[in-house]
């Protein structure tokens, strides 16, 4: 089995879908001749031509809107945001147009909006955001947050085949840092199915994206103290695999919510509410959040380091939960 | 005005009159408290959507805005369905999920606009892009008002369409006011075409109260688009003979302007042309107006018989897999042809 990085896995997923279905095409800034800011689409212009790998003006509203219109007409556009942070510039078209079209007048919008999110690469306040929450909160949108190369490929393929708008946030820190063997055959990872990244009896860590690795590292460290973490990798925030979350929590009776996004209004709050509403009687300790603080993502290395949730934060929270 | 066939004359006059009378009747329903949401009219602007949408071929697409009712009617949305929509009934094109003129119907190739003005413009481009992508000879007619031309999305979209030479015709209802804001507060250049010209495609000012002028300009622009030569913008100059919506008395508009533009009513003007040129007889015109009147009454009574939507089905259709009737598709129809 060929070993692929997370980035190569996304590229391969898109590539295969474009080979499979002529309706699938890409739009974005600098994705053609240059191959994309992170070279994710390298070689795709040569393979598929300018009709299907469209370099656009610097104009998120224009190309996102065009993708929505093309999707309504039955095409399957994939829009690349050069950085996920820039999604705010086309917020209206996503939440008011794409998200509501099926509900309002039955017009499905089979569109994928993807782009690099997350910090840890010294991108500063405009190239490091985790912008998932406003879209999680908007009915009609699906939100995918892959953590592994296998999932990155299977989820992008599922997203492309999905009949509704999907936001696919790639973690740029993972692009070239992780690698794994990818089966050569066609496969999809269905949207809305979480993955148990590590099984354990003591504490559930519910997380996604690059934080899965922080959780796994913490689990290693804690195992040496006899504390066993169960790491639940959500894969998708919408649709949410509530069953997997509740099953894990009911088993461990203690839960830690971990994300790289900032805290107030972050996904951990929603998870806490659902868990306490539906599994309160099972809990032996209050749910604990480990997240970034309520602060823009700073640039300078010591500041960014202080901003991002770290293994030691998880370890500390887990010890507290265990002792509670 | 040029010579036209009796058939075209009849269709144009009928559509404009139907738009006028249907909107008048809708306004009455609003005043009676039967329509609970906002109602928006194109009174005095009927020539623009009628004179342009009448030119669409079966697989062309229209993206009408809120003063373009004739485009909906020409594309096959029945008057009673429009009324059912305003009344929030099950048989409206959004099954009561939306009101206003937010009506879309893929089976009629009508793409719905949304309330944030100009958001439809990049979306309309995407429809045009789908034609180009699939090498279809079809054209999109995209409508908006003068206010929308101040939005960033409008500028981004015009530029995008120009770069990719998309088969689209932009039709601006320049009715001089965006809600209460006059064009002079919207921009420091005199005309919409002055803004649009920067993007590098033909732009033309058209008498928006002359249905044949709109027809001719649209015909030329659509041919250009079908030849693959890209977009055109038509600035149809007109006047909003009403408030922004039915709740708005438009006290901020100088009375003389209403008086001046009342004399240019596109329906009276076209009717006179048809009679003067002996294209239609007085009896035919009378019969046609009677037909419109009957259809409007029939539309209202049929719409009022339509049930309200079932709150138990409110969550249907948020996603494809959360239930609801299957979505009509623009592509299925094309495959059938």
Helix-residue proportion of chain B: 40-55%
Q: What is the total tally of β strands of chain A?
A: 14
Q: Quick one: how many beta strands of chain B?
A: 7
Distance between the termini of chain B: 35 Å
Overall, the morphology of chain A is globular
Say what oligomer this is.
heterodimer
Mean pLDDT of chain B: 95
Radius of gyration of chain A: 19 Å
- Could you tell me how far the N terminus lies from the C terminus of chain A, measured between alpha carbons in angstroms? 45 Å
| Beta-strand proportion of chain A | 15-25%
Helix share of residues of chain A? 25-40%
Low-confidence stretches of chain B: none
Largest interface: A-B, 41 and 47 residues
Number of helices, counting only DSSP H or I runs of 4 residues or more of chain B = 13
Major β-sheet profile of chain B = 5 strands, parallel
| Approximate strand percentage of chain B | 5-15%
Helix and strand string of chain A, N-terminal first?
Answer: EHEHEHEHEHEHEEEEHEEHEHEHH
Major sheet attributes of chain A: 7 strands, mixed
Please state how the strands of the largest beta sheet of chain A are arranged side by side: 3-2-4-5-7-6-12
Low-confidence stretches of chain A: none
Strand order of the largest sheet of chain B: 1-2-3-7-6
Strand-helix topology:
The complex is a heterodimer of chains A (324) and B (337).
Chain A: E1 3-5, H1 6-20, E2 24-28, H2 44-48, E3 53-55, H3 60-72, E4 76-80, H4 91-105, E5 112-117, H5 133-136, E6 142-144, H6 149-161, E7 166-171, E8 179-181, E9 195-198, E10 203-207, H7 211-223, E11 229-233, E12 236-238, H8 242-252, E13 255-262, H9 267-279, E14 288-292, H10 301-307, H11 311-323
Parallel strand pairs in A: 2-3, 2-4, 4-5, 5-7, 6-7, 10-11, 10-13, 13-14
Antiparallel strand pairs in A: 1-8, 6-12, 9-11
Helix pairs in contact in A: 1-6, 3-4, 7-11, 8-9
Chain B: H1 6-31, H2 46-53, E1 61-63, H3 69-74, H4 79-86, H5 120-133, E2 140-145, H6 152-164, E3 168-174, E4 177-178, E5 181-182, H7 183-186, H8 192-196, E6 203-207, H9 211-226, E7 232-237, H10 255-262, H11 266-276, H12 282-305, H13 330-336
Parallel strand pairs in B: 1-2, 2-3, 3-7, 6-7
Antiparallel strand pairs in B: 4-5
């Amino acid at each position: 089995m060929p070993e692929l990085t997370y980035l190569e896995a996304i590229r391969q997923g898109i590539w295969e879908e474009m080979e499979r279905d002529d309706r699938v095409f890409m739009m974005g800034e600098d994705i053609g001749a240059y191959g994309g800011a992170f070279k994710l689409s390298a070689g795709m212009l040569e393979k598929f031509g300018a009709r299907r790998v469209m370099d656009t003006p610097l104009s998120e509203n224009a190309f996102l809107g065009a993708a929505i219109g093309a999707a309504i007409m039955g095409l399957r556009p994939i829009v690349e945001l050069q950085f996920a942070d820039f999604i705010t510039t086309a917020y209206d078209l996503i939440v008011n147009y794409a998200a509501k079209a099926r509900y309002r007048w039955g017009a499905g919008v089979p569109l994928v909006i993807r782009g690099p999110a997350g910090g840890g690469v010294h991108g500063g306040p405009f190239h490091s955001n985790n912008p998932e929450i406003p879209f999680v909160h908007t009915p009609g949108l699906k939100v995918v947050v892959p953590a592994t190369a296998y999932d990155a490929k299977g989820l992008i393929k599922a997203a492309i085949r999905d009949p509704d708008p999907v936001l696919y946030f790639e973690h740029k820190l993972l692009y070239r840092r992780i690698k794994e063997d990818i089966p050569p055959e066609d496969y999809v990872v269905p949207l809305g199915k979480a993955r148990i990244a590590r099984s354990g009896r003591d504490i559930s860590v519910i997380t996604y994206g690059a934080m899965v690795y922080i959780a796994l590292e913490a689990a290693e460290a804690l195992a040496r103290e006899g504390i066993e973490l169960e790491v639940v990798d959500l894969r998708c925030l919408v649709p949410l695999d509530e069953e997997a979350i509740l099953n894990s929590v009911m088993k461990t009776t203690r839960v830690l919510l971990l994300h790289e996004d900032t805290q107030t209004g972050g996904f951990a709050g929603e998870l806490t509410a659902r868990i306490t509403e539906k599994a309160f009687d099972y809990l032996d300790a209050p749910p604990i959040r480990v997240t970034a603080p309520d602060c823009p993502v700073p640039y300078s290395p010591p500041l960014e380091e202080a901003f991002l949730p770290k293994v030691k934060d998880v370890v500390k929270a887990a010890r507290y939960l265990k002792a509670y | 005005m040029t010579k036209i066939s009796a058939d075209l004359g009849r269709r144009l006059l009928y559509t404009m009159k139907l738009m006028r009378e249907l909107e008048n009747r809708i306004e009455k329903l609003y005043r009676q408290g039967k329509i609970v949401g906002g109602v928006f009219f194109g009174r005095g602007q009927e020539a623009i959507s009628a004179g342009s949408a009448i030119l669409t071929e079966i697989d062309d697409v229209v993206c009408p805005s809120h003063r373009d009712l004739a485009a909906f009617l020409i594309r096959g949305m029945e008057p009673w369905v429009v009324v059912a929509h305003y009344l929030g009934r099950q048989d409206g094109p959004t099954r009561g999920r939306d009101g206003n003129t937010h009506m879309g119907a893929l089976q009629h190739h009508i793409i719905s606009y949304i309330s944030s003005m100009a958001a439809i413009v990049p979306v309309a481009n995407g429809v045009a892009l789908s034609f180009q992508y699939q090498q279809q000879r079809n054209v999109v007619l995209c409508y908006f008002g003068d206010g929308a031309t101040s939005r960033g999305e409008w500028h981004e979209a015009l530029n995008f369409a120009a770069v990719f030479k998309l088969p689209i015709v932009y039709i601006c209802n320049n009715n001089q006011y965006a809600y209460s804001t006059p064009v002079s507060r919207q921009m420091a250049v005199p005309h919409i075409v002055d803004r649009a010209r920067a993007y590098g495609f033909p732009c033309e000012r058209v008498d928006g109260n002359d249905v044949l002028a709109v027809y001719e300009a649209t015909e030329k622009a659509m041919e250009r688009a079908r030849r693959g030569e890209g977009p055109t913008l038509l600035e149809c100059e007109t006047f909003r003979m009403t408030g922004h919506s039915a709740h708005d008395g438009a006290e901020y508009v100088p009375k003389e302007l209403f008086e001046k533009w009342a004399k240019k009513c596109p329906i009276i003007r076209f009717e006179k042309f048809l009679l003067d040129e002996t294209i239609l007889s007085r009896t035919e015109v009378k019969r046609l107006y009677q037909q419109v009147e009957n259809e409007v009454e029939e539309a209202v009574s049929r719409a009022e018989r339509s049930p309200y939507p079932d709150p138990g089905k409110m969550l249907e259709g948020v996603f494809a897999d959360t239930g609801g009737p299957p979505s009509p598709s623009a592509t299925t129809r094309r495959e059938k042809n």
